[in-house]
Design goal:
Layout lengths: L1 H7 L15 E3 L3 H10 L5 E6 L4 H13 L7 E6 L4 H11 L7 E6 L2 E7 L8 H5 L1
Parallel strand pairs: 1-3, 2-3
Antiparallel strand pairs: 2-4, 4-5
């Protein structure tokens, strides 16, 4: 759990001393994927698949975290795909996407409406999908 604490804690240096709550919910099991499909019928859900051994993934994750603070109407799930590879494989199968890392999926009404990987994640117009 130590690595997740380091990832999930606030690293915003613009507001020194201010601790912001993490937007992330951990995705660890297949049951949660079923819950995500149901939740997405009420509000958008974002899954971020992250490889803790990849510098690109780490950088994209940090950049993505800066862009999501305004979206309170969506749920954000974080998957450590090295720890939970079976869940990552299930995501590819259930949502009909090719596995990549890092990878971001936006789910509405039980379906993926947008997915990107690597540096293209930063190019996604989140306002279009999450507002």
């Amino acid at each position: 759990m130590g690595i997740l604490k380091n990832i999930f804690k606030s690293t915003d240096t613009n507001n020194a001393g201010e601790n912001k709550p993490s937007p992330w919910k951990e995705l660890r099991d297949l049951k949660t994927l079923d819950e995500i499909k149901e939740i997405s019928k009420e509000k958008p859900v974002v899954i971020f698949k992250h490889s803790t051994r990849c510098g690109v993934s780490r950088g994209v994750l940090r950049q993505f975290e800066r862009s999501i603070s305004d979206y309170k109407e969506a749920d954000f799930y974080y998957l450590d795909l090295l720890q939970h590879r079976s869940v990552s494989n299930a995501i590819a199968e259930i949502f009909h996407v090719i596995h990549q890392s890092p990878q971001m999926l936006i789910i509405k009404n039980g379906e993926v409406v947008k997915h990107e990987s690597h540096y293209q994640i930063a190019e996604v117009d989140l306002k279009r999908y999450l507002s």
